[in-house]
UniProtKB/TrEMBL annotation:
<dbReference type="Pfam" id="PF04480">
    <property type="entry name" value="DUF559"/>
</dbReference>
<feature type="domain" description="DUF559">
    <location>
        <begin position="267"/>
        <end position="330"/>
    </location>
</feature>
<dbReference type="InterPro" id="IPR011335">
    <property type="entry name" value="Restrct_endonuc-II-like"/>
</dbReference>
<protein>
    <submittedName>
        <fullName>DUF559 domain-containing protein</fullName>
    </submittedName>
</protein>
<dbReference type="InterPro" id="IPR047216">
    <property type="entry name" value="Endonuclease_DUF559_bact"/>
</dbReference>
<dbReference type="InterPro" id="IPR007569">
    <property type="entry name" value="DUF559"/>
</dbReference>
Length: 342
């Protein structure tokens, strides 16, 4: 367990987002946790494990080979999920009984992304911590997971003791790297990182970061709509019925032509037509996020892309209108490209 600080620029939520979104090609899968002051270590650990269980359910079947072929959520699907999980655990570092129970629970709730109390076998916290870390790593095709913990401001002395002890326990039992970001805490080694110039330049122009809105945050899986996003799932479901929507790519990275700008992750992109569609949730209303969006859009525009932005409310209230706008742009761009090729 380490605390991360900058060498010549501070490490805050803005900087961490720029460093981790998109997730670097190498290294561990990284999820972030906004800690709150807790009265006891079991309370803190329990909170984190519940969030990780919700994540594991939401990432299913990405972590279970052949899991996408399962029917659900009936009894046959759950039984098949258990069989696949036990097969996956054979000769691997997964604990078969825990993985089987988690797979059955995940297929039961695969469309809800909410964790409901399991009625099956209960596992001790040590087993859950190690098993969940391995499952999340498998979903992202990484060997390891790191948990970035945002330290609350003005922790009491007792709260700080609980936070450090809980994170130490989690790092030891789960095998995850646990990185603390924020105020200095006692008994934790601080590692100073040199923030890449592109990130430092962009972060310097952003308003102060605000506390993370979600307790646990994680990157979407590349190549598919985010499983936790009702909006992205709704758009993809509609696009499946649209012949004109071919060539789309979800949650891909785009390296800007400007070497001093950060790599950009786009929600939805048609690379050939140079069209990017961004679907903005409430977090985009914060001053820092709005400014980051503006700068990203400007760089994409310089590289010849057109960015179409829609709020979650626009998608959920009038999805046909959103699709008509995207269709109109794509067909117009394709017509221009075909005329230019003549």
């Amino acid at each position: 367990m380490l605390r991360i600080a900058g060498v010549d620029s501070s490490i805050d939520a803005n900087v961490m987002e720029l460093l981790l979104d998109p997730l670097p090609e190498t290294g561990p899968a990284v999820v972030t946790y906004a800690a709150a002051e807790c009265d006891s270590v079991p309370e803190l650990v329990g909170s984190i494990l519940r969030e990780l269980e919700t994540l594991a359910v939401g990432l299913f079947p990405a972590w279970l080979p052949e899991g996408e072929k399962l029917d659900g959520p009936g009894g046959a699907g759950m039984a098949a999920a258990r069989v696949l999980a036990m097969r996956m655990a054979t000769g691997a570092r997964h604990f078969g009984p825990f993985l089987a129970e988690l797979a059955a629970h995940a297929i039961q709730h695969r469309d809800s992304f909410t964790l409901r109390p399991t009625r099956g076998r209960a596992f001790p916290a040590e087993v859950r911590a190690a098993g969940l870390a391995r499952v999340v790593a498998a979903a992202y095709r990484r060997h390891e997971v790191a948990l970035v913990v945002y330290v609350p401001e003005k922790l009491s002395s007792h709260g700080e003791t609980v936070l450090v002890a809980g994170c130490e326990w989690l790092a030891h039992q789960s095998g995850m790297g646990v990185w603390l970001v924020g105020p200095e805490v006692r008994r934790v080694e601080t590692v100073h990182l040199k923030v890449p110039k592109a990130v430092a330049l962009l972060a310097a122009g952003l308003p102060p970061s605000e506390p993370p809105a979600a307790v646990l945050r994680w990157p979407p899986l590349r190549g598919e709509p985010a499983r936790y996003s009702e909006v992205e799932q709704a758009v993809e479901k509609a696009l499946l019925e649209c012949p004109w929507a071919h060539g789309r790519e979800w949650n891909q990275t785009y390296p800007s032509n400007d070497a001093l700008f950060v790599t950009i992750r786009t929600d939805l992109m048609w690379a050939h037509e140079k069209c990017v569609v961004e679907l903005d949730g409430p977090e985009h209303l914060t001053a820092a996020k709005a400014e980051m969006d503006r700068l990203r859009d400007r760089h994409l525009d310089r590289d010849g892309f057109t960015v179409l932005r829609f709020t979650n409310e626009q998608v959920l209230d009038d999805l046909p209108a959103v699709l008509r706008r995207i269709k109109k742009f794509l067909l117009g761009r394709r017509l221009g490209l075909s005329e230019g090729a003549v």
